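LAB NOTEBOOK - FOLDING QUEUE
OPERATOR: T.R.
BATCH SIZE: 2
PURPOSE: Compare the predicted structure-token outputs for two unrelated chains run back to back under identical settings.
PRIORITY: normal
REVIEWER: second-year student, initials M.K.

ITEM 1
FIELD SEQUENCE / FIELD STRUCTURE:
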Amino acid sequence: MCYNFFYYIISFIAIVLIGILIGLVIHLHLKLKKFLAGSDVKNLDGTISEMKKSINDLQIFKKELESYLVSVEARIRRSVQSVSTVRFNPFKGTGSGGNQSFATAFMNEEGDGVVVSSLYSREHVSVFSKPIKAHKAEYELSDEEQNALDAAEKILKAGK
């Protein structure tokens, strides 16, 4: 009788352990199913191979993107990044012109660009253009042109 009771206890413990192991197997199966989700692969080796391929594709994309960004950065440095306009009356006191004349400076990040100025009078309009290299004018600038250039440089410095 004592042996029967002992067998019942061992059987009960074995059934509980089997239930726990079945639960663990189901839990691991669900985790593996999540891990393999989204792919047609049915085993771990296939999933790892697919992940390696994805990583290689991402590395290729990263290299292409980096080279593209380097070229974009070079183009941006050469593009106009600062514009400043000064309006003025070149004929103060004579009554002609008004504040219709202007000087506008266009500059890129490296300090290259152009100053365009216009002198307006009732009879005609004159337009001038003076190149700028490394923040320096190649030709003598009027006070208004220099003011426009200084304001453009100030905008560039504020943007950095």
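ITEM 2
FIELD SEQUENCE / FIELD STRUCTURE:
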Amino acid sequence: MDETPQHRAVFDAVVTFANGGDLRVRGFRLDVPGPDTGEADVAALLVAHLGLLMVDSVELTDLAIVPEPHKGGRAVAPAAAGQGGGGRVVDLAHVVTDGMVTYPGIPVPAIGAHLTFEQSADHYAPGTEFTIGMITMATNTGTYLDTPAHRYRGGDDLATLPLERMAGLDGLVVRVTDAVAARLAAGEAP
């Protein structure tokens, strides 16, 4: 078992969104990789942990890093996950909703019920009821991973790709907020 001390950040924050509005948190506690985690990293971890999109800025106040066991979340991988205790996993997934447009021309997802509680009650013994949900969507709805099978006949699909080819890789952050703001100001589509 890994005996490396774990740490959490405790802080207040205001998250401002590029499309308007803000989110305020007080006394928020967040798993961090270690005691030397800086303010910019804590801000990035907060955004990743909450799965926020279109974030313009994050202002932290009263930040303290305290020795405290991790509670789990999206932003910091547990040491047992093979990340050496200090690695960071960022979950890029977002919620898929009924009717959301993922790309023009791709069918929108349909989320509903195959069988409702009321419908099941009509077919089973008194007091017996249940529901069965149903989701119909294109395979590249939402956040997804293109595989060789997407482009090449006979290419590997997701089930045949080893995890190490998809996780724990170097990443590149591209900030496009200025470019998006400029295009919106010019009346163009982002």
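REVIEWER COMMENT (ITEM 2): The first strand starts at residue 7 and ends at 17.
FOLLOW-UP: none requested
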